[in-house]
Specification:
The complex is a heterodimer of chains A (325) and B (323). With 325 residues, chain A is an all-alpha fold. Chain A has helices at residues 2-27, 34-39, 45-54, 61-74, 98-133, 138-152, 155-169, 185-219, 222-229, 234-262, 266-271, 277-286, 290-318, 320-324, and strands spanning 76-78, 81-83. Helix content of chain A is 75%, strand content 2%. Chain A has a two-stranded antiparallel sheet with strand order 1-2. In chain A, helix 1 packs antiparallel against helix 13 (290-318) and helix 10 (234-262) runs antiparallel to helix 13 (290-318). Chain B is mainly alpha-helical and 323 residues long. Chain B contains 14 helices and no strands. In chain B, helix 2 (29-46) crosses helix 6 (100-136) and helix 6 (100-136) packs parallel to helix 9. Chain B is globular, with a radius of gyration of 25 Å. The mean pLDDT of chain B is 82. Classes of the chains: A mainly alpha (325), B mainly alpha (323). At the A-B interface, helix 1, helix 6, helix 7, helix 11 and helix 12 of A face helix 7, helix 8, helix 12, helix 13 and helix 14 of B.
Chain lengths: 325, 323
């Protein structure tokens, strides 16, 4: 198990390095002059050169990349002062340390992702199991037509309709907003409820479909038939035998979805005007703010890759055959 | 059922797998209906200029601004339900006062064109890479596999957003306005670059197992060239996954393109776009919910029809699958 994890972590590091390098070099294909932004109005060629030197932008791109990556672990010294590790540089747009902005925005994204994922995992898998248990009945048919509809819904449509109905129509709730959970858990919950529900609607459809077909497949397996033949109860067969077999693929997909949600539920954030990592990414792209974009990309990739490792480990725990392979 | 008599022997008809598939598909009512719906959307996209000519409106004309009495002082339609009337069937756009029906028709045209082009590119790349990796195996397979792994690790939405301006800058200098056709090409390229890996991986696995089958071995023994084996022996067996995957891919690319335009990195004013209508709808919903209703409903119908069609195509190709 340890060797398995070590090998996976090493591979993950290589992938993160490659992606960060590709992002960094591609961004320098952009004909932007970052120094211009910090230069202000009365900008001369001399002051531009000074800023370029201060930001280290006069060096070749590979050297800049090296300093950037090294800075994350050791901190960096700019002429403006020392930037302690983890140092992702200073934003070109507002000259603030990038890491502070990330730390400021991440809780919003984390709240959206964790809350939404809990809802869609519980409801989606639950609905799928119900549909499998009552296969062929009206319950199953109702759920599968709902899933077909849910699969076609888009956050940018359902979200707006939800806002129009729940907030401005019925006045049941306030506009979604982020409040730190440490300060006011109730406000945090009510502020996030609409984004969670809307985000889940989209995912519940695919999770219920997936769970249903996995459960049906498992229920027709030989070991399940044997369990039934030796007289085990219906629920014991369903939950202890079939469910265990269906669990592993669900965990895999869930890990991947959760990882990509951590890198920013961009459309959700836009629909509900929440300021998370996704919005930060878009604003850093439109403002050609390389340090900020690099940091968001790195956080996003790390989230996805970490999620993959956790999934693999969980998979190995659930299914012993994987460990031996 | 009449018993075939000696005088009238029932003719045995040989049918190709394609004909069999077609017969099964025609019997699936949900599949046929959704095929018509999908065809309708493509027809609307292709015939957008004809539709707007017959309907007598232009997608860019600002009727509400040019004529008095259509929009109120806040820029919202005067008539109830978003200004729906005999003249403006789907109502008027708030603020700009454009006709919603022609906006939607041309918006569908833009989004569908981009998604269809990206789908074709993704499928071609997926087939090429998947079959190459699967057939050649060995080191080629290893490196292509690692390349696919790398691309799959990119956060997709984030990368679409991050790399769109990079592609723009490859073509135009930043001082100049990016022309619309370049935005379209960029969106196609970006969607393509991170969209083909799933199909490639799937086909690689299929080819890997097909390669060891007897008929391929027989072809190889008789001296068929690799090209012949791939085109005549392998590809005919791969049509099912290719067709099913492309019908599933197209709607996801349509919604991805709409999402990019929704957050403002895709198609921008004044080109009509499906996704941009949602952005406008999100801005106006408190005073005029009708506006977002039509693009939203159209998208739901479109995606549902496409998903049903994908299911039916799969069932028609592979009658063993049960839903």
């Amino acid at each position: 198990m340890l060797r398995f994890l070590a090998r996976r972590t090493l591979g993950a590091l290589v992938i993160i390095l490659l992606i960060s390098a590709i992002t960094f070099f591609l961004f320098f294909a952009l004909p932007s002059e970052p120094a211009l932004m910090s230069c202000g109005k009365n900008c001369t060629a001399d002051s531009l050169a000074v800023i370029n030197k201060n930001l280290g932008l006069d060096r070749p791109v590979p050297v800049q990349y090296w300093h950037y990556m090294a800075g994350i672990f050791t901190g960096r010294d700019f002429s403006a002062g020392h930037c302690p590790a983890p140092c992702f540089g200073y934003s070109f747009a507002n000259q603030q340390p990038v890491w502070d902005t990330i730390v400021d925005r991440f809780p919003t994204t984390l709240s959206i992702a964790l809350g939404g994922a809990t809802v869609f995992l519980v409801v989606g898998v639950g609905v799928g199991m119900l549909a499998a248990a009552f296969r062929g009945t009206w319950i199953d048919k109702l759920f599968s037509s709902l899933a077909l509809l849910g699969n076609a819904l888009q956050i940018y449509f359902v979200g707006v309709v939800a806002l129009a109905v729940l907030v401005s129509g019925l006045h049941w709730m306030d506009n979604p907003a982020y409040y730190p959970i440490t300060e006011d858990p109730v406000k945090w919950f009510t502020g996030m409820l609409i984004p969670w529900l809307v985000l889940s609607v989209i995912f519940i459809a695919s999770y219920s479909r997936m769970t249903r077909s996995l459960m049906i497949e498992q229920l027709s397996e030989d070991h399940v038939r044997t369990a039934r033949a030796k007289g085990l109860g219906r629920s014991a067969v369903f939950f202890r035998y079939a469910w265990r077999g269906a669990l592993a693929p669900i965990v895999t997909i869930f890990g991947i979805d959760l990882g990509s949600l951590f890198s920013g539920a961009i459309i959700t954030e836009f629909t509900f005007s929440l300021h998370g990592l996704g919005r930060l990414a878009v604003s850093s792209v439109t403002g050609t703010d390389l340090p900020m974009l690099m940091a968001v990309m790195l956080v996003g990739c790390t989230a996805i890759v970490l999620a993959n490792i956790v999934v693999d480990a969980a998979y190995a725990l659930i299914d012993p055959r994987v460990r031996l392979a | 059922m009449p018993i075939p008599s000696q005088t009238q022997p029932r003719e045995l008809v040989g049918r190709s797998p394609g004909q069999l598939m077609w017969r099964r598909f025609k019997r699936d009512r949900a599949g046929v209906v959704s095929a018509y719906v999908v065809a309708f959307f493509f027809l609307v996209a292709l015939a957008a200029p004809l539709i707007s000519a017959a309907y007598g409106k232009s997608p860019t004309a600002t009727y509400g601004l040019d004529e008095g009495g259509l929009l109120n002082e806040f820029g919202y339609p005067v008539a109830p339900n978003g200004g729906i009337s005999g003249r403006f069937w789907f109502g008027l756009e708030p603020t700009m006062g454009r006709d919603v029906l022609t906006q939607l028709v041309y918006g569908i045209r833009t989004s569908l064109l981009i998604a269809a082009a990206a789908t074709v590119l993704c499928v071609l790349t997926g087939v090429l890479v998947g079959v190459t990796a699967g057939y050649l195996g060995g080191r080629t397979d290893y490196f292509l596999g690692r390349f696919i792994d790398l691309l799959l690790a990119f956060p997709a939405q984030l990368s679409f957003i991050a790399f769109t301006p990079v592609v723009y800058s490859l073509f135009v200098s930043p001082e100049k306005q990016t022309p619309t056709y370049l935005r379209v090409i960029t969106l196609i390229l970006v969607l393509w670059a991170l969209g083909w890996m799933g199909l490639a991986r799937l086909l690689r696995g299929q080819v890997l197992s097909l390669r060891e089958r007897e008929f391929v071995e027989a072809a190889r023994v008789t001296g068929a060239s690799p090209w012949r084996i791939i085109t005549k022996e392998l590809l005919p067996n791969l049509w099912t996954p290719i067709l099913v995957q492309s019908t599933l891919m197209l709607p996801t690319l349509v919604t991805a393109e709409a999402g990019l335009s929704f957050i403002g990195v895709g198609i921008i004013e004044p080109t009509p776009d499906w996704g941009r209508m949602f952005a406008a709808g999100a801005a106006y919903y408190e005073s005029d919910i009708t506006y977002i209703f039509f693009p939203g409903l159209a998208m739901i119908i479109f995606v549902v029809a496409f998903n049903l069609l994908g299911d039916s195509v799969r069932d028609a190709f592979d009658p063993r699958t049960k839903r």
